[in-house]
Amino acid sequence: MVSLATSTFSRNLFPRPSLPYVVRALGTTLLQLHPKPTSWGPLSSSWKSCSAHFSASSFNLSKSQNETLGSQDDLVVLGIETSCDDTAAAIVRSNGDILSQVVSSQVVQDALENANLTERDLSAVAVTIGPGLSLCLRVGVQKARKIAGSHNLPIVGVHHMEAHALVARLIEKDLQFPFMALLISGGHNLLILARDLGHYIQLGTTIDDAIGEAYDKTAKWLGLDLRRSGGPAIEELAREGDAKAVKFSTPMKQHKDCNFSYAGLKTQVRLAIESRNINAEIPISSASSEDRSSRADIAASFQRVAVLHLEERCERAIEWALKIEPSIKHLVVSGGVASNQYVRAQLDQVVKKKSLQLVCPPPSLCTDNGVMVAWTGLEHFRMGRYDPPPPANEPEDYVYDLRPRWPLGEEYSEGRSEARSLRTARIHPSLTSLIQASMQQQS
Ligand code: KG4
Ligand code: ZN
């Protein structure tokens, strides 16, 4: 059974959206365009402050934009992603063509130039509004609102983890809802059931660290080259090692749920490194061959157990998900750690055993990127879920609606772990509950 705690939760914490959604019968109208904006993800200080300039009449799209909205086959969305250290931007067409993709400084201008487009060619701007560090999110939202404001473009606020999952639908055109997703990155470890666009059930999450964090720390303690982040360095070194050399125990064996824990495994790795007198100050490139092989054994043993934990949880999650939605055919694996070949191979075995199909975006679309944000923006935009263009001259000190802690969906009630003491303070109502509340208001 799915927890129903949200409606109370969102009503208590968050004023209700002021403008009714125009979205009806989600699912049956997936490709149907709605010409009016919905109170989708108001990128302003609150729903209330939004209502002032949130009437359909005040939202005047230019002629060319209206034409674009009419011809749903040819939408072009600029996506901006800054939930972590880097900024990425991309331009994606509704048929899935990636027109350009750029990372780091000068992103937006480069993305437009590489696509041979100007802002006038865009249908909308999409930007990550959470979860992530406020400081980083603000950079992207500020940029997005500036562009949208000065070119009278609608704006779509995107959930970073939803974007990791939905980019799989750009790659695999046959990927229909419902499907399952394992999202594994530096900050998140999520198992979800995607029932429909914007409708997710959370089957499991991490009670402490995410797997990417464990890869990064292990790489640092082993003195690896961290220029490309720790994950790829561990993956490479692990190929030389014996994965059975060090006996690490698999996390949460006694908890028969789908949650994750990587803090304990991190400690086991640190102790193993200390007991073998491995000195991280000596880079692996300067280590003796004996030292190198001892480091490789730790990398391989860590990776085996870290991934075994994913395998065990996925197997159970598939059983749970099939009880809720027996028609599920796919497991999407995405997020930075999904670029790992060993992770893919192991999960492929699990999925095959359950007669499902694995869908993994290519590595460049698994790690944070602008394409996933543009694509997710596009998916919501064509459902009519977007905000009107912000005013052209928004004050610098404008308070944006950023959502640093923003769940994707409600927890599957059987999946609640006693091992979790979830801090609920300052958690934003989930994406799913916001969309459902607006749809109820509309009906
Ligand atoms: O999704 P992502 O790019 O950013 C976050 O949202 O966190 O994920 C970054 C994480 C880092 O922890 C990085 O070490 C990990 O993904 N990662 C990998 C690999 N490539 C990136 N982990 C294991 N193997 C890889 N090949
Ligand atoms: Zn990410």
Report on this model:
The chain is α/β, with parallel strands linked by helices. Helix content is 38%, strand content 14%. The chain contains 14 helices and eleven strands. A six-stranded mixed β-sheet has the order 10-9-6-7-8-11. It has a five-stranded mixed β-sheet with strand order 3-2-1-4-5, sandwiched between helices. Helix 7 (211-221) crosses helix 8 (230-238). The chain is globular. The relative contact order is 0.20. The site of zinc ion (ZN) has 5 residues, from helix 6.
Q: How many β strands by DSSP?
A: 11
**Treating each run of at least 4 consecutive H or I residues as one helix, how many helices?**
14
Beta-strand content bin:
5-15%
- What is the CA-atom radius of gyration, in angstroms? 22 Å
Provide a compact summary of the structure.
With 443 residues, the protein is of the alpha/beta class.
Descriptors for this entry?
single chain, binds zinc ion, 6-stranded mixed beta sheet, 443 residues, alpha/beta, 11 strands, 5-stranded mixed beta sheet, globular, binds 5'-O-[(R)-(carboxyoxy)(hydroxy)phosphoryl]adenosine, 14 helices
List the helices and strands and how they pair.
Layout (H helix, E strand, L loop, with lengths): L5 H8 L33 H5 L11 H8 L5 E6 L6 E6 L4 E6 L3 H8 L9 E7 L3 H17 L4 E5 H12 L7 E6 L4 E8 L2 E6 L6 H11 L8 H9 L24 H13 L13 H36 L5 E5 L6 H13 L3 E3 L3 H4 L3 H12 L28 E2 L19 H12 L1
Parallel strand pairs: 1-4, 4-5, 6-9, 8-11, 9-10
Antiparallel strand pairs: 1-2, 2-3, 6-7, 7-8
Helix pairs in contact: 6-13, 7-8, 7-9, 7-10, 8-10, 9-10, 10-11
